[in-house]
Amino acid sequence: MAAVGDDLAIRGRAAQRVLARLDRARKDAALHAIADAIGRRRAAIAEANAADLAQGRDDGLSAALLSAVLIAVGMSRLSGSALKPTVTLDQVQRDKVAAKEMVR
Q1: Cβ-Cβ contacts under 8 Å for 45 (sequence gap 6 or more)
Q2: pLDDT tens digits for 38-95?
Q3: Conformational region of residue 66, where left means phi above 0, alpha means psi within -120 to 50, and beta covers everything else
Q4: d(CA 51, CA 1)
Q5: pTM to 2 decimals?
Q6: d(Cα 27, Cα 23) in Å, to the nearest integer?
Q7: pLDDT at position 85
Q8: How far apart are alpha carbons 28 and 30 in whole angstroms?
Q9: Contacts of 86 (CB under 8 A, 6+ apart)
Q10: How far is residue 84's CA from residue 14's CA, in Å, rounded to a whole number?
């Protein structure tokens, strides 16, 4: 798993260097394309997040840490909405409640 993380980090840094050289319009277009790709995979991402939270619970992570993860997931949804205003605060709150139910 560490190799996957290392590969993602390397690819992320490479993408960051490319994006840094683009003009604002091309950066915006790239970020919208990324947001669209994430949006298309939203269900799979939510499923993987739920599995990770359940694994964390099974591994004995504290409720406080699991709650912090839920908050981070909600914040990432909110920050993503700045790119594409498709996520509302109500949706984030519903997701948090659903995720908390999964880890009980």
Answers
A1: 38
A2: 888 888 888 888 888 888 888 888 888 888 777 777 656 555 544 454 445 556 667 6
A3: alpha
A4: 16
A5: 0.51
A6: 6
A7: 46
A8: 5
A9: 39
A10: 24
